[in-house]
Design brief:
The structure holds 2 protein chains of 2 kinds.
Chain A (H helix, E strand, L loop, with lengths): L1 E5 L3 H12 L3 E6 L2 H10 L3 E4 L5 H6 L7 E4 L4 H14 L3 E5 L3 H4 L2 E4 L7 E4 L8 E3 L1 H13 L7 E4 L4 E7 L19 E8 L2 E3 L12 E7 L3 H5 L11 E5 L3 H12 L3 E6 L2 H10 L3 E4 L5 H6 L7 E4 L4 H13 L4 E5 L6 H6 L4 E3 L1 H13 L6 E5 L4 E7 L21 E7 L2 E3 L12 E7 L3 H8 L1
Parallel strand pairs in A: 1-2, 1-4, 2-3, 4-5, 5-8, 14-15, 14-17, 15-16, 17-18, 18-19
Antiparallel strand pairs in A: 6-7, 9-10, 10-13, 11-12, 11-13, 20-21, 21-24, 22-23, 22-24
Chain B lengths: L2 H18 L1 H9 L5 H22 L8 H19 L1 H5 L6 H12 L15 H15 L2 H8 L5 H11 L12 H25 L4 H11 L18 H14 L3 H10 L3 H5 L1 H25 L3 H16 L14 H13 L12 H19 L8 E2 L2 E2 L2 H28 L5 H12 L20 H15 L3 H5 L3 H5 L2
Antiparallel strand pairs in B: 1-2
Helix pairs in contact in B: 1-3, 1-4, 2-3, 2-7, 4-6, 4-9, 6-7, 6-21, 7-11, 8-10, 10-11, 10-12, 10-13, 12-16, 15-16, 15-17, 16-17, 18-19, 19-20, 19-21, 20-21
The chains are: A alpha/beta, B mainly alpha.
């Protein structure tokens, strides 16, 4: 697969990095010489220097044979136009990073045509297959986490029937126990264990320790019951404090208000306070998010959730720690520098939200759409869970999964054949059209892909 | 710095080089030569040490960092040359290890300067190995290695750029460096095969054709006789060899564009290539005229000799069909200049490279203009595309360093070796730094380097290495800062 990335900013180079680790060919278009040199020292990619909003540069990057073109320059308008040009030149799929919410959805316009009364204009009309807005992606993720029973990140597979949920192991009953000795009340599979900065794909004899984060895959109806093995259910959040009323804090507040969560926002800039308070029901307080006295004064500790969502990762980590000290149950922290995420987890932040990683995951999903039905990245992007639909000519057809050698380090999680969901390796031979969910380190993805189509 | 990682890759590399000794072994067995056991023992030693080194340093496979890549590449060339000298010693070709080391370094760096006095007496296996070292070194031993070894990631790019030198014409042809390395290798092997076939058709014995092919494509220069290509005295052979030498001196990236992208435009518009061809044509004509006027050559033989010699020297191959040391001073001087200029970047040729000469020329031109129009802003352009100032500075720095090194090494050589006069010392350094091979006077085309003192041979081996790796990686690892912050 060949991917062209226009604009090697933080998001662009992050996507390039994960894509090259997965073994795909990547070309980057970048205007600045300094950034070009940095990339050349870091990534094995082809770099084309020049402005991406130009047909000749896009041609040089061989956009015509690209499977995906990702436009992540600083300008929304440029990104939209790059996707338009790329699609015209023959790119199979395009993704644009668009920050402005005005452009993100569709536009409805009146029309003079006699047959219809209105006209809907969508990104597709411009040749854009996917619009990614990092702030909205992060806000959605926070909404999803706060609305689940365990207040934890999750993902969906098999058309929503299978859930993948992250739990922090806090119940003493399972400490130090090998996985095979745990009496699971319902069928399920542990996809990965994250311990500190290390992530492993566990075998039957691996044990669970206090503070591990586990990624559990199970049928959606069984998840709540299974979760009780590892962690205390906490109930959905009904009130939340958001530190920072910028683009991302505002988006979160909007999403939470849709769920009838009571929101209080603490924002430093007075003008911004005025602007957002006009659009939200939330209480908006002007002040510094790292001001402990202010947090106490505002009775922040009575909230169910505390979300640190300013534009500064450092400030968010600090506010998050203050929130923990105040005894708030769920502290969520937005951290947009990938290298800070393990640090934030190490100092005790429960849930770290990275708009960057979430957007990159969304884009990766779009890129891999031709190969897999669903993708989920986990454990700081070191692993990927893929749902494969077995292709007509896949080499695996006719062999039982039990007798198949999966690439090193990967593990079968779920095997779905004729609506029959199994969490172990079946004895029946695999047929075309079966769904197989597999977790693997991202470096072996291309080997795993080869088995299934 | 993780020395384990560096030595692990060195171990693998050494094993690979040892495995390549099977080719001369086959040649030796085929011709029933006296050197069969020498190769068997050499293979055992080389593969054995490589495997041992690899076994005791094996760790989780990780990518080398930039510093590790620099050390790895510099060490690789030295150590590989040390080991590939073993067959020369065991077969009794040389009695002195310094001579054997000189010969094998000369091979891997594609220099082609020899200390072997009786080439004709050497067994077949040794001759094959001598030429094969050039063929392996031509594309870069590390490049060969990278093409076959997966999971090096960005480390591969570090290793290749440490070996091939950074430049605007970087090796990154496609989106993956390993893929690019494979494409270059395919082109290299393909052209070698074509030359082999052409030479066999020209009725050269298969053995000679193979040896010459192994020497032409990497622009090396070793042959089976002291008289070099002149020994065959065949117009067809001269023509074929000239063609393939010239082809090997062109940036391989251009072949990629022609063959894979099916476009001739980049080839025709390439300024470096135009200058390269211009230099060859102009120099051949001047030398031919010089020969006709001052040495009573016939027109056809003057052109035949001048074209062959110009191409051979400019591409830094060093094949000989005539004793150009007997030519008039203008011709000798021109050839010496061509030794410094060398071939195109991204080719298998060495020396300063045409593109740097071109950039320096444009830079001088800009300086001249800015003397009378100080506020003029003039980016340096190649084929309508501006060259980044970083590359301009890099090219200037390289040329300055090249000239400086040339002078220093020549002075040391003339001080240390009383047997060489000043002209010979300069020519010897220029010819070895540029990976050409034969120089002038006492190291000219019909004599060799056997008479140079042991110290001189070590100094010239160092020059070959510096020239082949374009100085920077070797110099980088000699700075205290490299080791302090390792």
């Amino acid at each position: 697969m060949y991917i062209v990335i226009a604009g090697a900013g933080v998001l662009g180079s992050y996507i390039a990095q994960t894509m090259t680790e997965e073994g795909y060919g990547v070309a980057i278009i970048e205007q600045s010489e300094a950034q070009k040199v940095t990339i050349a020292r870091k990534l094995d990619v082809k770099i084309i220097q020049g402005g991406a909003v130009s047909p000749s540069t896009l041609e040089e990057a061989e956009v015509k044979r690209a499977d995906v073109v990702v436009a992540t320059t600083n300008s929304d308008e440029a990104n939209i136009f790059i996707c338009f040009l790329a699609k015209q030149m023959g790119a199979k799929r395009t993704v644009a990073r668009v920050r402005s919410q005005e452009y993100s959805g569709y536009v409805i316009m009146p029309t003079d045509a006699p047959t219809t009364t209105r006209r809907v204009f969508r990104p597709k009309n411009l040749g854009i297959d996917l619009i990614v807005n990092p702030e909205i992606v992060a806000a959605d993720e926070i909404r999803r986490i706060l609305s689940s029973l365990y207040v934890t990140p999750m993902d969906e597979f098999a058309e929503g029937n299978i859930h993948l949920t992250e739990f922090k192991v806090t119940k003493e009953g399972v400490f130090g126990k090998p996985i095979k000795e745990i009496a699971f009340p319902k069928p399920c599979s542990i996809a990965a264990i994250k311990r500190g900065e290390e992530a492993i794909i566990p075998g039957d004899s691996d044990t669970l320790n206090q503070g591990d984060r586990i990624y559990l895959i199970a049928s959606k109806d069984h998840m709540d019951e299974l979760g009780a093995l590892f962690a205390q259910p906490t109930g959905k959040a009904h009130s939340a404090v958001i530190i920072g009323g910028g683009r991302i804090g505002f988006s979160i507040a909007q999403k939470l208000e849709e769920m009838n969560v009571q929101v209080k926002i603490i924002e430093q800039d007075e003008r911004q306070c005025w602007a957002i308070s006009q659009k939200l029901k939330a209480v908006v307080v002007q002040g510094e998010g790292s001001d402990y006295e202010l947090l106490k004064e505002e009775r922040v500790e009575s909230a169910d959730a505390f979300i640190a969502a300013t534009d500064h990762a450092e400030l968010n980590i600090l506010s998050g720690l203050l929130g923990k000290r105040l005894g708030i149950k769920h502290v969520l922290t937005v951290v947009d520098k990938p290298e800070y995420i393990p640090v934030a987890e190490a100092v005790g932040i429960d849930i770290v939200i990275s708009p960057l990683q979430l957007s990159a995951g969304k884009i990766a999903r779009q890129a891999r759409l031709a190969e897999v039905a669903s993708v989920s990245r986990l454990a700081s992007e070191k692993m990927e869970i893929n749902e494969y639909v077995v292709g007509e000519n896949a080499p695996i057809i006719g062999k039982p999964l039990k007798k198949t050698d999966l690439p090193n380090g990967s593990k079968l999680l779920t095997y779905i054949s004729d609506n029959n969901i199994r969490f172990h390796q079946g004895d029946n031979p695999v047929k075309a059209g079966d769904h197989v969910i597999i977790v693997c380190p991202i470096s072996t993805i291309s080997d795993t892909d080869r088995l299934f189509y | 710095m993780r020395f384990k990682v560096v030595f692990n890759y060195l171990g693998l590399l050494l094993t690979m080089v040892g495995a390549c000794m099977v080719i001369p072994l086959i040649g030796s067995v085929w011709h029933n030569g006296p050197d069969t056991t020498a190769f068997l023992i050499s293979i055992a030693i080389t593969v054995g040490s490589g495997a041992v080194l690899w076994y005791f340093t094996r760790t989780k496979r990780t990518m080398p960092t930039l510093r590790e890549a620099l050390l790895l590449v510099s060490l690789a060339w030295v150590i590989v040359s040390l080991y590939s000298a073993i067959p020369f010693m065991l077969a009794g070709t040389f009695t002195n290890y310094i001579d054997a080391y000189f010969e094998s370094m000369s091979g891997f760096t594609t220099t082609g300067s020899s200390v072997l006095t009786e080439i004709e007496a050497a067994p077949h296996g040794i001759l094959i190995w001598r030429s094969l070292t050039q063929w392996l070194g031509g594309m870069g031993i590390v490049m060969l290695f990278v093409a076959f070894l997966p999971q090096l990631g960005i480390g591969a790019a570090f290793m290749i750029s440490a070996e091939a030198g950074p430049g605007p014409e970087a090796v990154q042809l496609t989106e993956r460096i390993r893929h690019s390395a494979r494409i270059l290798l395919i082109i290299y092997i393909g052209m070698s095969a074509l030359e082999l076939i052409a030479l066999v058709i020209a009725r050269l014995p298969f053995f000679d054709s193979l040896i010459i092919t192994f020497s032409t494509m990497p622009t090396g220069g070793f042959t089976t006789t002291t008289a070099s290509i002149g020994a065959y005295d065949s117009v067809a052979v001269d023509g074929i060899v000239t063609f393939f030498m010239a082809a090997a001196g062109i940036n391989f990236g251009l072949y990629y564009i022609i063959l894979w992208k099916r476009s001739l435009k980049a080839f025709i518009n390439n300024r470096e290539l135009r200058l390269y061809i211009t230099i060859i044509l102009v120099a051949s004509i001047i030398i031919a005229l010089d020969l006709i006027i001052n040495r009573d050559y016939g027109v056809s033989s003057a052109f035949r000799q001048s074209i062959f010699q110009t191409v051979s020297i400019q591409t830094t191959t060093g094949f000989v069909t005539a004793d150009y040391d007997m030519w008039p001073h203008l011709s000798r001087g021109l050839l010496l200049t061509l030794m410094m200029i060398g071939a195109c970047a991204g080719s298998t040729g060495g020396a300063i490279k045409v593109i740097r000469v071109l950039i320096v020329e444009r830079y001088i031109h800009r300086q001249v203009i800015s003397t009378h129009s100080p506020r003029a802003i003039m980016p340096i352009k190649l084929a309508e595309r501006p060259v980044s100032e970083r590359w301009v500075t890099q090219a200037l720095g390289f040329v300055a360093l090249y000239v400086l090194a040339m002078i220093m090494l020549s002075l040391i050589l003339s001080a240390a070796d009383p047997a060489l006069n000043l002209e010979s010392a300069f020519a010897a350094v220029i010819a070895n730094l540029g990976n050409v091979g034969p120089g002038l006077a006492s190291v000219g085309p019909i004599v060799n380097y056997a008479a140079v003192s042991p110290f001189g041979k070590m100094l010239l081996s160092l020059s070959m290495l510096l020239g082949r790796l374009e100085f920077w990686p070797v110099l980088a690892i000699t700075t205290p800062a490299f080791w302090k912050w390792r």
